[in-house]
Description:
mainly alpha; 3-stranded mixed sheet; elongated; Tetracycline Repressor, domain 2
Amino acid sequence: MNKHLPQTAGKLMTGLVPVVGIDARIGEVAEMLYREAKGLETIAYIFVLKKNKILAGVISVKDVFRLNPNRRVSSLVKGQKIFSVRSHTDQEHVVRIALKHGIKSVPVIDKRRKFLGVVTHKTILKIMEAEHIEDLLMGAGITAGKDEKSYENFVRLSSVNQFRKRLPWLVLGLLGGIVTAFVVNLFEESLREEIIFASFIPLVVYIADAVGVQTQTIFIRAMVVDKGLKTAAYFKKEGIVTLGLAICLGLMIAAITIVWQKSEILGLVIGLSVFSTIVISSLVAILMPWFFDRIKIDPAVASGPFATVIRDITSLMVYFGIANLLYFRVFS
């Protein structure tokens, strides 16, 4: 019985793969393949084992049929770098190993390098599909069940189950909308005085969301693909990109507003608001998934309705705060 945790290499691996001893000859390997191929799940690689089933290396089927039958397997795996995972390794990391090193199947070993099994290319493809669907649905605010297959079969779920999975984040979005309305209501007097500020709310909120989504998507993917990601260097690089975008877009909207509304003060307020909301939105977009990752929660949780609510509320507060400070106090 497989007692490994779900979505780990140990749970996903199979032992139905070709294995040979390190002292075997190529001809013997070929005979073994002819004899046992029907009972194996995959023959993409032959796994070479030393004493006590210690993984010594990997050879391909192509090697078996193009080399001298009398050649020993040990000569092929001597000094070979082996890419493997442990039984507790998360399935996403298994996929990263396979993609990074261009291997079809990933061997699973224990802490003594004893060979346990293999995560096959067919399983790797299934993991990729499941993780992709999971991220898409989570980004749309659809919660996960304990069974990872609930993502793959989501469209086949009953109406009650679909309702249950879609409701939680939408309730959060509804509550966020109420908070957003409350923020707008705080500045009701100012809006009555200068209704033009209400016209720019969609623009300020949209641009902050757009930049935030870009930043967050790239950062989450970076964390998933590279577990050794140097966050300080990444933050610095993203900071430079964000400042560039904020300055460029802020100046553009300021210039358009000045020409359109014939008001330098309004242009300054809108331009500075766009600049500030982009910077803050990008900061939130990085800190949220980073925080979730640190507390061992899938950073994809930080996407979707939850992130949208946070960005919308902060954007409105910044926008009205700047408008109230500059337009209604300093220049009034």
